[in-house]
């Protein structure tokens, strides 16, 4: 993969300066535009078509949900990374997850941010941070998991492998829009709002199943 083209859009000049300095210090990133408002961000996405756009969730003149709507309706291929101080906007979190975009906290360590951006540029999902989400076993009971259809379980497993919606669609030979509908149903059934939590839940489920299978295969010792 070549250099990762990035648009940075934030209402705070100090954040623009800090992110620019961090990314420019690494050769695999190339900043193509820095914007301070919504109009500039949209123009940069349309004209420059960057791999990633790091966007302030409270960008002047453009809400996160509105930006998602524009990117989806115009079929722009840029992966959006919403940069926020908290994940309290649950509607934005859910919509970002369903559409294959990400939300990252501003408190992330610089190296963790760089690694996550590289994963996103490769078409993989950002990994959940330990402090961001509750333990996956607290989020969905066995009964909730049993309500998933075979297709929903299949998509859940592929999400846990870090595949984007489009990659999942190619793997299963179904439309991107159909993937979003299935994910929406999965989120509702399991009562989660973030695909990274869904991935963590799927991995925990696999680990639990493997442990149970191992116990069943364990031979019993005969008493002499």
Question: How would you describe the overall organization of this protein?
Answer:
The chain has 224 residues and is an alpha/beta fold. The chain has helices spanning 13-24, 38-48, 64-73, 90-98, 110-121, 142-146, 150-160, 165-172, 176-190, 195-217; strands at residues 4-9, 29-35, 52-56, 79-84, 102-105. It has a five-stranded parallel β-sheet with strand order 2-1-3-4-5, sandwiched between helices. Strand 1 (4-9), helix 1 and strand 2 (29-35) form a beta-alpha-beta unit. The radius of gyration is 20 Å and the shape is globular. The model is unreliable at 127-140 and 207-215 (pLDDT under 50).
Chain-averaged pLDDT = 78
Structural category is alpha/beta
Q: What is the C-alpha radius of gyration, as a whole number of Å?
A: 20 Å
Distance between the termini: 62 Å
What pattern of helices and strands is seen along the backbone? EHEHEHEHEHHHHHH
User: Which band does the percent of strand residues land in?
Assistant: 5-15%
- Spatial ordering of strands, largest sheet: 2-1-3-4-5
Q: Which word captures the global form?
A: globular
Characterize the largest beta sheet: strand count, sense, and whether it forms a barrel.
5 strands, parallel
Number of helices: 10
Low-confidence region ranges:
127-140, 207-215
Question: How many strands in all?
Answer: 5
Query: Helix fraction?
Result: 40-55%
List the helices and strands and how they pair.
Blueprint: E1 4-9, H1 13-24, E2 29-35, H2 38-48, E3 52-56, H3 64-73, E4 79-84, H4 90-98, E5 102-105, H5 110-121, H6 142-146, H7 150-160, H8 165-172, H9 176-190, H10 195-217
Parallel strand pairs: 1-2, 1-3, 3-4, 4-5
Helix pairs in contact: 7-9, 7-10, 8-9
């Amino acid at each position: 993969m070549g250099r990762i083209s990035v648009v940075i859009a934030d209402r705070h000049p100090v954040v623009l300066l800090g992110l620019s300095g961090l990314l420019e210090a690494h050769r695999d990133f190339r900043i193509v535009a820095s914007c301070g408002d919504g109009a500039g961000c949209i123009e940069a996405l349309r004209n420059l078509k960057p791999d990633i756009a790091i966007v302030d969730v409270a960008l002047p003149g453009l809400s996160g949900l509105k930006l998602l709507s524009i990117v989806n309706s115009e079929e722009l291929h840029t992966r959006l990374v919403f940069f926020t101080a908290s994940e309290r906007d649950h509607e934005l979190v859910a919509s970002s997850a369903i559409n294959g975009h990400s939300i990252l906290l501003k408190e992330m360590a610089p190296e963790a941010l760089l690694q996550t951006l590289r994963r996103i540029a490769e078409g993989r999902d950002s990994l959940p941070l330990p402090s961001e989400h509750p333990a996956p076993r607290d989020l969905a009971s066995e009964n909730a998991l049993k309500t998933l259809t075979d297709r929903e379980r299949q998509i859940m497993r592929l999400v846990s492998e870090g595949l984007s919606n489009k990659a999942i669609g190619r793997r299963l030979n179904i439309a991107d829009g159909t993937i979003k509908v299935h994910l929406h149903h999965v989120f509702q059934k399991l009562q989660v709002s973030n695909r990274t939590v869904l991935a963590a839940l799927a991995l925990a489920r696999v680990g639990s199943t493997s442990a149970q299978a191992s116990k069943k295969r364990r031979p019993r010792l005969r008493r002499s």
